[in-house]
Amino acid sequence: MNEYGGNRWRIIIPRLLVLIIFGVLILRVGYLQLIDSRYESLAGDNYLRYVVKYPPRGEVFDRNGEYLVQSKICYDLMAVWRDMPRSGVDTLRLLDITGLTLPRLKNALYEARRSPRQGRLVAKYLSAEEKLQLDELNIPGLYTVPRTVRQYPRKIGGNLLGSVGEITDKMLKNSSEYYGIGDYIGTEGLEAAYEEELRGVKGLVLHDLYARDEAHDQIINHPQPGKSIVCTIDARLQAFAEDLMRGKVGAVVAIEPATGEILVMASSPTFDPDELVGRERGNNYMRNLNNPRHPLFNRSVKSKYPPGSTFKLVNGLIGLQEGVLKPNYRYSCHNGYDYGKIHVGCHEHSSPLNLDYAIATSCNAYFCYVFRNILENKKYGSVKDAYDVWCEYVESFGFGRKLESDFLGEGRGYVPDRAFYDKRYHKSWNALTVLSLSIGQGELGCTPLQLANLAATIANRGYYYIPHIVRSIEGQDSLDARFYRKNYTKVDARHFETIVHGMWRGVNVDGTCQGAKLDGWDVCGKTGTAQNPRGEDHSTFVSFAPRNNPKIAIAVYVEHGGFGASMAVPIASLVEEMYLTDSITRPWLVDYVKQKQINYYNAYDRKRQK
52-231: what CATH class? Predict the structure, then answer.
């Protein structure tokens, strides 16, 4: 009996001890979970935070190695709400350093409070000096993140270079996973077109905080700087063109015919690109946006201007290719072209005249005859069929479509098709109905880039390279293959020499653009005076030089500038002289152009004044 009782207790006692131990553990866990908040507080002080390290954006150089765009360091002020002192901060001092208003600071801190463990943006574009002042305040929960912003040493090419701004919600939805809230992105011009190359690769740091306030950073990956880009632009030539266009509205585009590289892309009026950097970016942007002259609008690639008489070159080439025109064909002009009630006026010159003299003197009547011969060519079934063929020729010169350059926002211009006139004239129209196209008027529209490309195409005797603004990219052996491919027109090379001779004669012998003559350079050119129903005619000019082995092709378009020879010719000639000779021998002409301020009110201006 005793033996049995002793064995029984030896079994019960261990079981009781196990039950007691488990009971104590359960009670302890319950206490920690339901009553004691000490460990919850400790856990809150021990967490991981990922911090993005922004790479420096790639810099941009001109074709001669001069800086067009540089990067400089600035800082974003971030806030982690849970780390900030509950007793408050020195608000007045913080406002003074950051330049924030009290409502904006409150709003930033409210956003931080909504995600208390994450860093939220409070202020951006802080300088190194302002960062040091913040460091001296030593406010827990506030820290700075370095990043780079743009600066523009030459303060030129605002429309060309574009700008960098904070990504919008709409852009964020349509962008890749690379971007997050508060990131910067190229918004216009070259900055947007080459965003992937310029932006670099963001780095990531794991910031590990412990209860003892000891911070240990673990680098997940280092930021990789953006690639530098060498532009095709000649900075000095760009600055000179912008200076000549000051006080005028229009554009200057110059191309190297042998490569398609854009030497100048000056839109006027323009803006100082430094205005769209920093805390005043928003205010400056809205001021430029509301300017009735629209300086943010890049007229070089987006405007849709009537080409005027410069387009006679295209019609002449089409006529030669179609066999309805020979260089020695002579037509009469008695102050214009008359047919029934139709009259197309022209200025005084000798008559009759052949093709090269018609180009040199810009005879309207001559090209009315040529255009009718093209559309009334009997080898086609009808005028409309011939017009379809004419459209194909015109588009082969790069009109009515994008040239597929590397510049975003390029306009198509406009070449009306057969369906357009069928709708407008209820299918009842003929060559006389659309006769204004013979002299580059009517519904035709083109960009200055397309006009410069026309000059380059004629300079090359029938082909062009796609115009582009980037010459090379760091780490890449070449550009896209399309920039090295010759694009041929539908006109044979043998027909171009007659047109070239007419352009040469117009500058060097007895034509409308003798003001473009440069001794020893055999400049070739063609003026245009584009009719404008809302004021003074537009002044335009296309040119290239020298005649053989051309180095530069240029188009100038000045709204309300009058005759082509009065405004566009001197601007183009000065740009050509600067590029070809690296000097200016006609300072009086520079003064004339700069003093010529074209003040006019367009429809938008008049509406604002009422």
Answer: alpha beta
